[in-house]
Design brief:
Length: about 140
């Protein structure tokens, strides 16, 4: 029971961290968004300091290694991986190539990992995957 409570707290903590990162990057009700030019660097710093995720390392991994890497970080359930994918996708849509392509490719990988882990069809997830694929074709 104690182990389960710990895991639930870690899952909630990672979700909260990613939501704070999204608010800082894209704006919220209480503070302005970071400029587009500074978003990528801010994301790298916040992921590393708050969630202990090295974005450069994550971007360099293939899908299998990414899945293992996130499995090694407590708190990364399907919902939190999907939230990370959405964050990378949103940033990738506003960034410039080649960094934008790397972000979009990684977001696509993360969404596919979610689909494999979840085994439940999600219309929102599939719509996000289609949007990313269209952006990568352009």
């Amino acid at each position: 029971m104690e182990q389960r409570d710990y895991l639930l707290r870690e899952i909630e903590k990672i979700g909260a961290i990613i939501m704070v990162i999204r608010r800082k990057l894209f704006g919220g009700t209480d503070e302005p968004a970071i400029t587009v030019e500074n978003q990528a660097e801010a994301l790298k710093e916040m992921l590393l300091s708050e969630a202990f995720i090295d974005l450069n390392e994550l971007l360099a991994m293939d899908a299998e290694d990414t899945d293992k890497y996130l499995a090694g970080h407590e708190g990364f359930n399907v919902a939190n991986i999907e939230l990370l994918a959405q964050t990378l996708s949103d940033l990738g849509m506003t960034s410039t190539p080649p960094f934008s392509f790397a972000l979009l490719e990684k977001a696509l990988q993360l969404y596919k990992i979610c689909s494999l882990r979840d085994r439940t069809y999600s219309f929102e997830r599939e719509a996000a995957i289609s949007t990313i694929r269209e952006a990568l074709k352009a």
